[in-house]
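ok trying this again, last paste got cut off
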Amino acid sequence: MEGYDFGERTDLNKVFTYARSLPIEKALHPDTIVAYEYNNQPIPFKHGYTLRLIVPQWYAMASVKWIKQISVIDYNFTGPFQTIDYVYYPNKENNKDAFPVTTINVDSTIQKPLDLEILNTGKHLIKGDCLDR
C-alpha cells in the first residue's frame, strides 16, 4: 500500500513515499477496509482523504493515508517504513531478528465493571489498570 505522502530520509539520503505491506490474509480479512467516508462524510484531508486503509487491531502506521496505489506482491516488502522504522528489534546485538510492528499489544485492563456484569441505568465509574507496571 503506497500513500501520496513522502519525505527525505537522512539515513538513506533519498526521498521515499510512505508505503507498508500486509500479509495477504490480513489484507483480505473482512474487517480490513479501504475507507472513503467517515460518519457519512468524505474523510477529512488530515485523516487520509480521499482513500485510507483501515487495519483494525494493528497500530495506526499500518492504516496508510492518502492511498496512491495498491499492489499485490509475491516477495517480502523492504520499504524503510517497514524494515527500519516501526520495527521491533528483539536482539539488540543482531538486527536480523527484527520484525515489523503490527498487532496492538494491549497493556491495560478494565477491572470495574466486571465482564458481563449487569448495571442499572445511570452513571458508572469505569476503573482499570496498566499491566505494564
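PB: full thing came through this time. The chain is about 5% helix and 30% strand.
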